[in-house]
Amino acid sequence: MVETNVGGTDRKGRALLAVVLTVVAVATLRKGNRKTGLLAGIGALAFGFNATTCFCGLNAALGIDTSEE
Hints:
The protein has one domain (about 10-60). The protein contains three helices and no strands. It has helices at about 10-30, 35-55, 55-60. The model has no long low-confidence stretch (mean pLDDT about 95). This is Inner membrane protein YgaP-like transmembrane domain-containing protein. It comes from Halorientalis persicus. It holds the Pfam family YgaP-like_TM.
């Protein structure tokens, strides 16, 4: 099982970023800007994954742990 390294305020911030990027992705895709919409959608998925699983690969690589003990 993967250890958690994202928690507290960091997790809430990532969840908020996921929501904001989802809105940006939908809005830009409706306008026909596929590249920006795709990038925003990928970012939303990444931040949503981090917030849901409480794990971030970049945090693990850098030795950062924001989870509460």
